[in-house]
Specification:
By secondary structure, the protein is an alpha+beta fold. The protein contains 20 helices and seven strands. The mean pLDDT is 95. The protein binds iron/sulfur cluster. Keywords: 4Fe-4S, Gluconeogenesis, Iron, Iron-sulfur, Lyase, Metal-binding.
Length: 452
């Protein structure tokens, strides 16, 4: 079971796989070092996509922060630069006797790829004579999830995990469960969550995710100026918001204006993400604007919003996101942008359909439609920055999610292509996609548009 709270993680931008994951891995290695005696020096080496696009994604800074003991959910985004700069200057990790000089000890390995995933990291600890004491490999597998080599091998060997009471491994099984139990999809996801934490904690956690998503939108609407990284991309959300507010009371307004509001919310989140702000991984940072934008659209523009509908939205989105992660991937480095923006759109479409009272079959249909129309989308961020095409891509993903929900709600849930079939198609398409289109910045827009 993939918990709602694993898919929706409060963290910082710009990337779940390249920022959040590496910070988590580095922090885990720090715990290892703290538990050992005799460590005098440590080193970190990053491989594959992490090396190729790591500077644009802030992977180096994230590793420094993790080694300092910071976590994505709690670090103040306004302090990341000063904390990492201090470590670069002093080499002081706050662990007596242990040295780390980022210039020497943090290595970008552009040549090699570790065997299990392109987002590999290797941390080593040495004693005062430079003898190796610890050697740990981690993989950042998308969405902020991190596994060691041993954990990855155990997962692929199918090591036993506790079964939730209403386990489902496919869209078909999920629909069968709703027929057998009479429960809705959010009720099934909730029943499984209750094996991990009590009801009050689930509700409080869901409300905290919602609040963090809306706070991110609000901050994105206030901020202005250029995004960091050198591409000279100007923030748009603030100006677009002012323009929409200015025409709110006009007698004649285009019917498609609602699409601008949906786009606005997504732009606000992804501009925050691109500037390293506080975002919710949903299911990744690159695609973090879609679920919040559609959730906010549900609150502000759809009838009968209440906290319960917001929770149903998130639980349903998580049920679909968990299926996609388990059966294919949510990582741009593994399957391209169809796995990030496509997955987020499927999750948001399902969430909106549930919040508007759709049946389980309509929810499955909405998720399928949203994913189907992202198939084949590559990942090619210019300069490795999660800005172009990522920010606008979230606006499109959010609008497509609303279209998908609307189409399914006007039908009866019966449709030709199943969610399982489209997830499998996405997996195969990602597998066949040339490596240069999978978060390497070696193809697509990344090579056809001048970075400066
Ligand atoms: S192109 Fe898509 S998958 Fe790639 S970094 Fe941007 S949002 Fe993520």
């Amino acid at each position: 079971m993939i918990s709602t709270f694993d898919l929706f993680k409060i963290g910082i931008g710009p990337s779940s796989s390249h920022t959040v994951g590496p910070m988590v891995a580095a922090r885990r290695f720090r715990e290892t070092v703290l538990a050992r005696t005799g460590v005098a020096r440590i080193s970190a080496e990053i491989y594959g996509s992490l090396a190729w696009t790591g500077r644009g994604h802030g992977t180096d800074t994230a590793i420094l922060l993790g080694l300092l003991g910071h976590a994505p959910a709690t670090i103040d985004p306004d302090l990341t630069t000063s904390l990492s700069d201090a470590l670069r200057r002093t080499g002081d990790l706050g662990i007596p006797g242990v040295h780390f000089e980022p210039e020497r000890d943090l290595v970008f390995n552009f040549k090699d790829i570790l065997p299990l995933h392109t987002n590999g990291m290797r941390f080593r600890a040495y004693d005062a004579r430079d003898a190796l004491l610890e050697d740990q490999i981690f993989y950042s597998i998308g969405g902020g999830f991190v596994v060691t080599a041993a954990e990855a091998e155990a997962a692929s060997a199918g090591d036993a995990q506790a079964e939730p009471p209403l386990a489902f491994g496919s869209g078909r099984e999920l629909l069968d469960l709703t027929l057998r139990t009479g429960l809705t999809i959010p009720q099934i996801q909730l029943a499984n969550e209750l094996t991990l934490r009590p009801r009050e904690a689930v509700d409080a956690g869901l409300d905290a995710i919602r609040d963090a998503m809306f706070a991110c939108i609000e901050r994105g609407l206030r901020m202005d100026g250029e995004l960091p990284g050198g591409l000279r991309v100007r923030r748009r959300a603030k100006r677009l918001h002012a323009s929409l507010e200015a025409t709110k009371l006009a007698n004649s307004r285009p019917a498609h204006e609602i699409m601008d509001w949906i786009s606005l919310y997504a732009l606000a989140v992804n501009e925050e993400n691109a500037s390293g702000g506080r975002v919710v991984t949903a299911p990744t940072n690159g695609a973090a604007g879609i679920v919040p934008a559609v959730l906010r659209y549900t609150r502000d523009f759809c009838p009968d919003w209440n906290d319960e509908r917001g929770r149903d939205f998130l639980l349903t989105a998580a049920a679909i996101g968990g299926l996609i992660k388990a059966r294919a991937s949510i990582s741009g480095a593994e399957v391209g942008c169809q796995g990030e923006v496509g997955s987020a759109a499927a999750m948001a479409a399902a969430g909106l359909t549930a919040a508007l009272g759709g049946s389980a079959f309509q929810i499955e249909n909405a998720a399928e439609i949203a994913m189907e129309h992202h198939l084949g989308m590559t990942c090619d961020p210019i300069a490795g920055l999660v800005q172009v095409p990522c920010i606008e891509r979230n606006a499109f993903g959010a609008n497509k999610a609303v279209v998908a929900a609307s189409l399914s709600l006007r039908g009866d849930g019966q449709h030709r292509v199943s969610l399982d079939e489209v997830i499998e198609t996405m997996r195969q398409t990602g597998h066949d996609m040339q490596a240069k289109y999978k978060e390497t910045s070696l193809g697509g827009l990344a090579v056809n548009v001048a970075a400066c």
